[in-house]
Design goal:
Helix content is 37%, strand content 22%. It is an alpha+beta fold. The protein folds into three domains: 3-101 and 338-369, no CATH class; 107-216, Nucleotidyltransferase, domain 5 (2-Layer Sandwich), CATH 3.30.420; 218-318, no CATH class. The strands form two sheets. The chain has a ten-stranded mixed β-sheet with strand order 3-2-1-4-5-10-9-8-6-7, sandwiched between helices. A two-stranded antiparallel sheet has the order 11-12.
Length: 371
């Protein structure tokens, strides 16, 4: 058996106990009787190795089964037939176990951080390529990228350890457009944490109207306003940053020329080594495109910039969220979605969780790092 196939099963059993995998396979109906394709074999096929991507054929997967276990011989049709709702349920349960594993390693939600909010939502997405034959149902991002692709949109409640939204969409739907679906979850007292891809002023305005809170990195092209003597004044961000002393500062601000969303701007100085690397990359990219980066842009690269409407009385500084366990209700995918695409979505989620955890191995007293 090839070394990388052995490694696949080894990594899997470092993360899950074999008994845990097979119990989940039987509990979800993926394995109903003695089967050539065990839960462990199936999980290894779809999560580890160069074959677990959109370009892999079922014939290649069938061949890999034999490489994983020389006593097993299955047909491509047998693999295809196992990509059904019960396979999805099995993978869904393994995702829950995977998140439970990461939660056991990471610390839980801090009481001080969570207590002020009814829920703490983390919104994020991940995409993966699909066979070109699915381009009508799942169009890709265009250009030189894959013609077909899907994206998983997730909203994770950090406080209750639950995904309150999990949807499968076409890859060509940008996060900035999809954020409207996320904002629809808004209720008074919920904190939404976004990455920059979801940045949308109207979304922030809608959250504030609903009595919810937001935390996001700042898109530096956003118009920032202050009030001076009752008059609106634009804030020249780069110029103001040159006057800031210390490592961390916050100030009241309004976002957008039209929206004027009340918020707080939080600025954190970046270590010099990171600043230099950021500026090197900025100059390199600008040179390729035939221009020179302006001084204002280079100044902004020395800072991490965040905006939030959480009042200072509730939360006075930026706190980084960690990992929690989940229950995974999958939102309805597009009609006529092939069952194996739903399984691929689950595999993509599982693969995004698992890579860092095999660094931890079981010991008699729990887990220890092997890095």
């Amino acid at each position: 058996m090839a070394e990388h196939q052995l490694s696949s099963l080894t990594m899997l059993t470092e993360f899950f106990a074999t008994e845990q995998i097979e119990a989940a396979a039987r509990r979800t109906g993926f394995v109903k009787r003695t089967s050539k394709i065990t839960g462990k074999i199936f999980l290894a096929l779809v999560t580890f190795g160069a074959w677990s991507d959109a370009k892999t054929t079922f014939a290649q997967l069938a061949a890999k089964v034999t490489q994983l276990d020389e006593h097993i011989d299955v047909s491509p049709e047998a693999i295809y037939q196992r990509m059904h709702k019960r396979a999805h349920a099995f993978l869904q349960e393994m995702i829950q176990h995977a998140l439970a594993q990461t939660h056991a390693i990471a610390s839980g939600c801090e009481d001080v951080f969570c207590a002020a909010f009814t829920k703490v939502y983390l919104a994020d997405s991940t995409g993966f390529a699909l066979p070109d034959s699915l381009k009508d149902t799942f169009p890709g991002s265009g250009g030189s990228a894959a013609q077909a692709g899907a994206k998983i949109q997730a909203v994770w409640d950090y406080k209750s350890s639950r995904f309150d939204h999990f949807a499968l969409t076409a890859w060509n739907i940008p996060d900035q457009k999809y954020v409207d679906q996320v904002v629809a979850l808004a209720q008074k007292g919920i904190l939404f944490i976004f990455d920059l891809g979801y940045f949308k002023l109207q979304a922030f305005a809608d959250l504030a109207t609903a009595g919810a809170y937001f935390l996001s990195r700042l898109n530096h092209q956003t118009t920032l306003l202050t009030t001076v003597g009752g008059q609106w004044q634009p804030l020249a961000l780069a110029n103001w940053l040159t006057t800031v002393e210390g490592q961390l500062l916050e100030r009241p601000i309004f976002l957008g020329e039209k929206e004027r969303v009340a918020a707080r701007l939080i600025v954190a100085r970046v270590p010099e080594a990171i600043v230099n690397e950021r500026r090197r990359k900025a100059r390199k990219n600008a040179k390729k495109k035939g221009y020179t980066p302006c001084q204002a842009h280079l100044t902004l690269l020395a800072w991490s910039l965040f905006i939030t409407n959480v009042p200072p009385t509730i939360w006075s500084s930026f706190l980084s969220p960690g990992r929690v366990i989940s229950i995974w209700p999958l939102s309805r995918p597009p009609k006529k979605t092939p069952p194996y695409v739903i399984c691929m979505a689950a595999c993509s989620s599982l693969c995004s969780i698992m890579p860092s955890v095999p660094r931890y191995v079981r010991t008699s007293g729990g887990r220890k790092s092997v890095n």
